């Protein structure tokens, strides 16, 4: 595969899209998007213009069915548990799902695309429990924590730029949707996020806290300063989500301040970057009622529950 640090003019986007399609054909994805229709409903918020998206995706629940993953070859039934790296802080004793050596042992079907982002090495792997088309998890080559730093912001903007703006890039902080807090990773997809349609100046009309930064001149400095200011208020409990995208031709970062005490919402469960961007991913049996009740009030209620205290 190509090195993401050496690809320009959208070639990296084509490489990633081609890799995801190849993983689809090889059967690495839990469902084939070419042969399955994902029920999707939208509700447009008249106060801010955002078309909230609700998606019913019960296939994602298979990600925890070990026997089924082994039967399909997504998970190697002959993996050697003794060689797998485990972080001592994980009380469950699970191996790290994002370390490249563990992936090679556990998921022989998975193809990793090497990238260089903001001067550090990463790998992009197709997310077999995909949420949107061309959904990858991009993991740091090193086993380093998921904590926010300026590098995280620079890396997500670098990846958005290197894919010529075609990939949206999402970061979930610890307690803000990140399920693996001990290995730095981000999510990417070519699918638009509903927050991109937020009318200019309507940030206060969005049901959870959001700040928008255009990434020109000193935009990156301003976004990083806002992130550091929020995290510094309460280092133990404050977290955040980030989205790098393009709005009206301008590279843009959306910053969502989060509080770990408000990580979940009724009718949804854990709320991460997709959800705070207005894209509600529903898969568990208890979440079906939320999908069937798609509406602007339902979307606003979920987001209001994870809005941090002022």
Concise synopsis of the structure shown:
This protein has 310 residues and is of the alpha+beta class. It contains 8 helices and 13 strands.
Question: How would you explain this protein's 3D organization?
Answer:
The structure is a single chain. It is built from eight helices and 13 strands. It has one domain. The strands form three sheets. An eight-stranded antiparallel β-sheet has the order 3-4-5-7-6-9-10-8. It has a three-stranded mixed β-sheet with strand order 1-2-13. Strands 11-12 form a two-stranded antiparallel ribbon. Strand 9 and strand 10 form a beta hairpin. The N terminus is likely disordered. It is globular, with a radius of gyration of 19 Å. Helix content is about 25%, strand content about 25%. It has about 300 residues and is an alpha+beta fold. The termini are far apart.
The shape is globular
Strand content: 15-25%
The major beta sheet can be summarized as: 8 strands, antiparallel
User: How are the strands of the biggest sheet laid out side by side?
Assistant: 3-4-5-7-6-9-10-8
What is the tally of beta strands? 13
Characteristic key phrases:
single chain; 310 residues; alpha+beta; 8-stranded antiparallel sheet; 3-stranded mixed sheet; 13 strands; 23% strand; globular; disordered N terminus
Secondary structure blueprint with pairings:
Layout: H1 11-25, E1 40-44, E2 51-56, H2 66-72, H3 100-106, E3 112-117, E4 120-126, E5 136-140, H4 150-162, E6 168-172, E7 185-189, E8 211-214, H5 219-233, E9 238-247, E10 250-259, E11 264-265, E12 269-270, H6 273-276, E13 279-282, H7 288-292, H8 296-305
């Amino acid at each position: 595969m190509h090195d993401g640090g050496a690809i320009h003019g959208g070639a990296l986007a084509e490489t990633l899209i081609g890799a995801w399609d190849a993983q689809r054909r090889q059967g690495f994805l839990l469902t084939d998007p070419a042969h399955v229709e994902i029920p999707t409903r939208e509700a447009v918020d008249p106060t801010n213009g955002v078309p909230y998206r609700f998606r019913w995706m019960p296939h994602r629940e298979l990600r925890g069915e070990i026997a089924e993953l082994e039967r399909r070859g997504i998970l190697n039934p002959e993996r050697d548990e003794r060689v797998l790296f485990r972080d001592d802080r994980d009380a469950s004793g699970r191996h790290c799902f994002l370390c490249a050596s563990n992936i090679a042992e556990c998921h022989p079907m998975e193809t990793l695309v090497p990238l260089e982002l903001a001067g550090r090495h990463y790998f992009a792997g197709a997310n077999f429990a995909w949420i949107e088309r061309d959904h990858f998890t991009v993991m740091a080559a090193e086993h380093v924590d998921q904590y926010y730093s300026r590098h995280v912001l620079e890396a997500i903007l670098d990846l958005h730029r290197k894919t010529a703006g075609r990939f949206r890039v999402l970061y979930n902080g610890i307690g803000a949707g990140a399920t693996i807090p001990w290995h730095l990773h981000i999510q990417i997809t070519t699918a638009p996020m509903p927050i991109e349609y937020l009318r200019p100046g309507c940030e206060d009309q969005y049901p959870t806290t959001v700040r928008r930064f255009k990434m020109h001149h000193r935009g990156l400095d301003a976004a990083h300063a806002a992130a550091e200011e929020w995290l510094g208020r309460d280092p133990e409990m404050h977290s955040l989500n980030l989205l790098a995208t393009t709005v009206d031709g301008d590279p843009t970062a959306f910053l969502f301040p989060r509080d770990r005490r408000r990580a979940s919402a009724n009718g949804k469960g854990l709320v991460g970057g997709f959800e705070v961007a207005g894209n509600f991913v529903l898969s568990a049996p208890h979440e079906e009622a939320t999908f069937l009740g798609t509406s602007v009030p339902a979307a606003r209620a979920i987001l209001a529950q994870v809005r941090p205290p002022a």
